[in-house]
Design brief:
Blueprint (H helix, E strand, L loop, with lengths): L5 H12 L5 H8 L3 H13 L19 E9 L4 H13 L3 E6 L6 E7 L2 H12 L5 E8 L10
Antiparallel strand pairs: 1-3, 1-4, 2-3
């Protein structure tokens, strides 16, 4: 198991901020020699702490102008109902995240569409058409002053 100390925490913070940082620059920022830094990064990869690197996209530059979080309640709580719903959400390109949660509803979705008309089509023609769905509550994102998703 990888030990988590302040240096590993700093390494992870820097990699989250810029996954393309060179090992030399990373080592300088966290106060290690390049070889020691590389060993730590490699160990965190082997241990499964670092599972990959991603590009951070500007969705508005890609034509996404509408983002919402949607709470979804299901008609019944069976495994079959949940699996069918999850398969449907996996097919929907508008659904960027699907989380099975606790509380008064079963799922929280992050949905991205070009505009409100695109969202209405998704809401009416796709999400509302799922036989498992009993309740839909939409929370429209007005802004994201902090978003640390990788």
């Amino acid at each position: 198991m990888t030990k988590f100390d302040q240096i590993n925490d700093k390494i992870l913070q820097e990699l989250v901020r810029d996954g393309r940082i060179s090992n030399l620059e990373l080592a300088e920022r966290v106060g290690l020699s390049p070889s020691a830094c590389l060993r730590r990064v490699q160990e965190m990869k082997r241990a499964g702490v670092i599972t990959g690197y991603r590009a951070v996209l500007d969705r508005s530059a890609m034509g996404v102008g509408f983002v919402a979080y949607i709470g979804v309640g299901l008609r019944d709580h069976s495994k079959e109902s949940q699996e069918a719903f999850e398969r449907a959400m996996a097919r929907a390109t508008e659904v960027r995240e699907c989380h099975n949660i606790t509380g008064t509803i079963e799922y929280l979705l992050r949905v991205e569409c070009a505009d409100i008309a695109g969202y209405k089509a998704f809401h009416t023609d796709f999400l509302g058409a799922q036989s498992q769905v009993n309740a839909i509550t939409t929370f429209v994102v007005l802004g994201s002053p902090k978003d640390e998703r990788g």
